[in-house]
Write a structure and sequence with these properties.
Layout lengths: L6 H13 L2 H8 L3 H15 L4 E4 L2 E4 L1 H29 L4 E6 L1 H6 L1 H12 L5 E6 L2 H9 L5 E4 L9 E15 L8 E2 L1 H5 L4 E3 L4 H12 L10 E3 L2 H9 L5 E4 H9 L3 E6 L4 E9 L6 H10 L8
Parallel strand pairs: 3-4, 3-5, 7-11, 8-9
Antiparallel strand pairs: 1-2, 5-12, 6-10, 6-11, 6-12
Helix pairs in contact: 1-2, 1-3, 1-4, 2-3, 4-10, 6-12
């Protein structure tokens, strides 16, 4: 692929993955199914590998498709941010709530929070800009004044910032459906001695997993089988059979339901972590408080 990526085709592919079918993606994009399908096929031709598995029951990403969307996510986020900035410039709006969130929150929770918050703001209200990063980067951005509100998943909260718990998350060990561990129960000792797919250092997911094993008396003993700086990359590696992984239930529940991943029970070990909002000073801004209210609104429990 020797030309600039086709963001329209990448966005179509991402929507198909999120909605589960070409028809649902075409409806959201307000295009015909044929037009959306042609975009994806053109992208497959450019890259040279299949990206979708199409069936009567819907469409699913191939392993290569998962990787492509993972790589494309920063580009798509930047394009969305650019479009929003241009729209704000045209409208002459002032005021923006700058948010940074660790990846699980940014991918699975914040879109709903922001959508409800925007509905309350009205057409002339403040706008939100979102940066996705690991927990340590979110904390650094908040300390430097680059953002107004941060959301992190790390069990170790920083000093000098105000914090509020907005929920809890569960970390689960998962494997590819064909892995020998599928359907098994393993011990913490066996888990600690097994090379695994991990998130990068600074990730709240990885820290919560390491701390839970250490508290059980079995700190990690081996080097990772692979390290990824995105949840999607780690999930794709596990799905491809690289090694077991420990990921948020929010990130893997659809793949578990679809049979692409299998949960692995770990005897005597349950890994949970807080989901925390952070800000500078004693009280958040009015816009930040309104978003926090949406984050604290009760939701259905995760499966």
């Amino acid at each position: 692929m020797d030309r600039e990526p086709d963001t329209a085709a990448l966005r179509a592919l991402a929507l198909i993955a999120e909605r589960g079918s070409i028809s649902a993606a075409s409806s959201e994009l307000r295009l015909s199914q044929q037009a959306v399908s042609l975009r994806v096929r053109s992208l497959e031709h450019e890259i040279g590998v299949p990206l979708l598995v199409r069936s009567a029951r819907g469409s699913q990403l191939t392993a290569a498709g998962e990787l492509v969307i993972g790589w494309a996510r920063p580009l798509l986020d930047a394009a969305t941010e650019f479009g929003a900035a241009v729209q704000d410039l045209r409208a002459g709006r002032e005021g923006s709530l700058r948010i940074a969130a660790s990846l699980t929150i940014a991918e699975h929770l914040l879109p709903g929070w922001i959508a409800r918050w925007r509905g309350l703001q009205g057409p002339s209200g403040a706008t939100a800009t979102l940066t996705a990063a690991n927990s340590s980067a979110v904390i650094a951005a908040l300390r430097s004044g680059e953002i107004d509100l941060g959301f992190v998943e790390t069990p170790e909260l920083p000093s000098g910032l105000t914090a509020a718990t907005v929920g809890r998350d569960r970390i689960e060990v998962v494997v590819a459906a064909s892995h020998p561990w599928a359907g098994r129960t393993v011990s913490p000792a066996e888990l600690a001695a097994t090379p695994m797919v991990h998130r990068e250092r600074g990730s709240g997911t990885r820290l919560a997993f390491e701390q839970a094993l250490a508290a059980a008396g079995h700190p990690l003993e081996v080097e990772p089988a692979a390290v990824h700086d995105t949840t999607l990359g780690a999930r794709s590696a596990v799905m491809a059979g690289v090694a077991p992984g420990a990921l948020s239930v929010l990130a893997v529940r659809d793949d578990v339901r679809g049979g692409r991943l299998a949960r692995v029970a770990v005897s005597g070990l349950e890994i949970t972590r807080p989901l925390t909002a952070l800000w500078r000073g004693s009280d958040p801004t009015a816009a930040a408080q309104a978003l926090l209210d949406e984050a604290l609104r009760p939701v259905e429990p995760t499966a």
